[in-house]
Amino acid sequence: MTFDEADWTLIPLSQHADFRQYIEHGIIPQNEFLCNYLQGNLRQASLLAGENEAASFYDYAKFLNEFCPVNCWGSPKLVLEYNSNGGLRLARMQHQRGQHEVRLVASRE
Fold this sequence. Notes:
Blueprint: H1 16-25, H2 32-38, H3 42-48, H4 51-55, H5 57-67, H6 76-84, H7 87-96
Helix pairs in contact: 1-7, 2-3
């Protein structure tokens, strides 16, 4: 599965815009819950979660694992690198232009 085929029902509607902006363009969410979740700071994310986010906590992980590039979440460093690389759209454009090989999916070690 890819981000283009994502099951958006896993994520609360209120988070869709921030999630899309981040994945597609690398724009770090202003939403503290989502930012902490993406960075792998699940303790802080759980403290910041509203009712909808708390009810969907597992679904966020499922969404990230199944539909998002591996290099866009999991640590503060990965989130900053993904931001500085311009997200999925820029990576796809560079790949299509043959500017460099882009690895959108990688295994976690």
